[in-house]
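Writing this down once: the sequence line spells out the residues, with the fold written below as integer tokens. This is how one looks:
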Amino acid sequence: MQKTPLSNRLHIALIGPMNAGKSSLMNALSGQDLAIVSEVAGTTTDPIVKAVEIIGLGPVAFIDTAGLNDKSELGAARVKKTKQMLKRANAVCLVFDASNFNEAEIAEVTATSPVSDAQTILIFNKIDKLSAEERSALNQKFPDALLISAEQNFGTDMVRDALIQCLQDIQEEHLIGDLLPPGSIIILVTPIDSEAPKGRLILPQVQVLRDCLDYGHLTTVVQVDELAKAIEVMQPDIVITDSQAFKEVATIVPDDIFLTSFSILFARQKGDLQYFVNSLQDLDTLTNPRVAIIESCSHNFTHEDIGRFKIPNFLKKKFGENISIDFYMGNDFVERMDDYDLLIHCGGCMTNRQTIQSRVETAREYETPMINYGMFLAYATGTLDRALLFFEDKI
């Protein structure tokens, strides 16, 4: 991979009323013309995600949003989409036109921010339209706000510094590297099926491999029929496999070697492994549950697809053919948590940790069991205990 995927980037959302200069600020911060800007209110009609490199921050993703005061025929749908995208944000810039705002609007927009005050930056743009006296009065009224002119590139360095300050304490995400001493021996099992992109590995496998290399672990990648020989030669500390091959791989890997799956590593990295484990314990108490299966990416699916076919087939075998199953794809998520007794989420390799964390928090708030694909497959195939043994003293 030559570029950092969006799922591994810190996400910065720009929100505020229409024509406040959110897109202009994104262009100024990135040094690129990423978004079309104009004096016409409502130029940005849907959230736009742009991946950029910011000195001092590294790879980030800007979320440029539609105006939250859009009263047009499609305004409500645009605002709803914006609020969905905000759940990805690690930091939020609240952007207002310094020459045209009201305090009630500031309070309303601030209330939509999904992050803490420490990760929220209040910005008044277009201060070039104000007199010196008006700027001074604005600064006195909002002493913590940043006064800038994105169009004239004035003050954007202050925004950049503020973003660095509020994002610097976000801990780096790890998959496996930090759980083992340097120089550990790891075997990755990557079955090649019809969903595997020709000529390359799928993203979860690539991300785990990169994490292993970053920590100096001796790592090799094999297919299932090569595994026994690889174990004999390498004597690994742990084998990590694709969830779909877990049952077969478990018969090959000796009991004294740890075994887990890519998806369970993602459950620890992006979700809440302990909450998922607790949710699995609730699974046997359910009867005829209403299930939501949630896939963060919107790929085409085949007969081998985990979310569309394999997991539903396991559910029907356990709970009966008439079980209620709904599917959510991409950025869509459950709106009415009370409608479901169980959420089964993909590993989340295509979305960032903040998104998964916000979904876990919603599930926890409603006491709705939530697990991810890999943990469900391990449960369904009777291999869950072994898959979790590696994490016994780590969760």
